[in-house]
Design brief:
There is one protein chain. The chain has a domain at 136-231. It starts with a strand and ends with a helix. Helix 5 (121-135) packs parallel to helix 6 and helix 8 (219-228) packs parallel to helix 10 (247-260). By secondary structure, it is of the alpha/beta class. It has helices spanning 29-45, 54-58, 62-71, 96-105, 121-135, 159-171, 195-203, 219-228, 242-245, 247-260, 277-286, 291-297, 302-316, 337-348; strands at 2-4, 7-9, 12-16, 77-80, 110-112, 139-142, 175-179, 208-212, 232-235, 266-267. The model is unreliable at 330-349 (pLDDT under 50).
Length: 349
């Protein structure tokens, strides 16, 4: 929990990793390049006091992670989002099994998400079912730009992707986290395009699609999709650190999200270990949209910050919020497709 100026915030970090990016696990120059690209994001967008050396960035210990998230980082619950990248890393970069082993030791701290790749066909469907049973999955993390042999990506709208989304519904996996953000060497920029989210969200209204990194640098495309698809959320991983290096740019990002999605569909994430939650939580709790931009975007209230920092993900993952850290229950807005369409018509004129 974080407390500042009499306000208390229940914090759910919606996007963390426990990776192995060491040279011993790098399968080729692509693995090295991928890790170093992450490190460039870390160095360039972190405040000086939060910058690590490369060796520490390549792999953190269990003690490091627990310290950074829970001892000093104010996080109450963290959600592991796996990124396999087995073409680049010998044992995988960050697998469900690696995450799950740590989560089993600290079940009160972590939620484990799985993953799938529709290019794995029937065998992958069976593996998804195994993961769901083993880890009681409520969510998956998808990496549509991941390379597999000669293939350099896939789309949510692919026929085999639909088979896997149907399997998610069958297994009770309702939270679909999709990486749709800045490109990472050597992955292809177009494979992160947000256009396929529109197709899948319309086809599977009972699933929730959390678009990680809010589609950056395609924020406008993402917002136009999310305003017509009430089951599309925006995850703030990668967007959050701009609060330090480019605060007015971050104000624009959060302002656009609040305008198009409202505060109930925006989620906090540190993207650990690219960044650490301590400084991000502190900066966001203190942040305010500049006055000259509030006429268009409005202001960030403590209740809006509470929703973004933890309460929205707590709702999606059925996380118990301690008494006094939630909000008074407001009248719920109807988010059915019909009502959403009416709201969009009002917004769009």
């Amino acid at each position: 929990m974080y407390e500042k100026d009499g306000e208390r915030y229940f914090v759910v970090d919606g996007h963390i990793h426990f990776w192995d990016g060491t040279p011993a696990n790098q399968a080729n120059r692509y693995g090295e390049g991928f890790l170093n690209c992450f490190y460039d994001y870390h160095r360039n967008l972190s405040p000086d006091h939060a910058v690590w050396d490369l060796e520490h960035f390549q792999r953190q210990s269990e003690e490091d992670l627990l310290h950074d998230l829970f001892e000093v980082g104010y996080v109450d619950k963290a959600i592991f989002q796996p990124t396999y990248l087995t073409d680049f890393f010998i044992n995988g970069f960050n697998t469900t099994e690696q995450d799950g082993a740590l989560a089993e030791k600290h079940p009160d701290r972590f939620i484990v998400n799985g993953s799938f790749d529709p290019r794995d066909g029937e065998g992958g469907l069976a593996e998804l079912e195994r993961l769901a049973e083993r880890w009681s999955l409520k969510g998956v993390k998808l990496y549509t730009a991941e390379w597999k042999g000669t293939s350099k990506g896939w789309k949510l709208s692919d026929p085999w992707s639909y088979r896997y989304l149907e399997k998610c519904q069958e297994l009770g996996i309702r939270n679909i986290h999709v990486h749709k953000g800045p490109t990472i060497y050597p992955l292809n920029r177009d494979a992160f395009d947000v256009a396929d989210v529109d197709d899948a969200a319309s086809a599977f209204p009972e699933l929730t699609f959390i678009v990680e990194h809010v589609g950056l640098p395609r924020l406008e495309d993402f917002c136009w999709i999310a305003t017509q698809e009430p089951n599309v959320y925006g995850g703030l991983a990668v967007a959050m650190p701009f609060i330090h290096t480019r605060p007015r740019y971050f104000a624009q990002i959060i302002g656009e999200l609040l305008y198009w999605l409202d505060e109930n569909r925006i989620t906090f994430a540190s993207d650990y270990a690219i960044w650490t939650p301590k400084w991000l939580v502190e900066a966001f709790a203190d942040f305010q949209i500049p006055e000259d931009m509030q006429g268009e975007y409005g202001a960030l209230t403590p209740d809006i910050k509470r929703k973004i920092l933890g309460l929205n993900l707590a709702r999606l993952y059925d996380i118990d919020v301690p008494p006094g850290l939630g909000l008074a229950v407001p009248e719920q807005r109807d988010t059915s497709p019909v009502v959403a369409a009416d709201r969009n018509e009002a917004v769009l004129g």
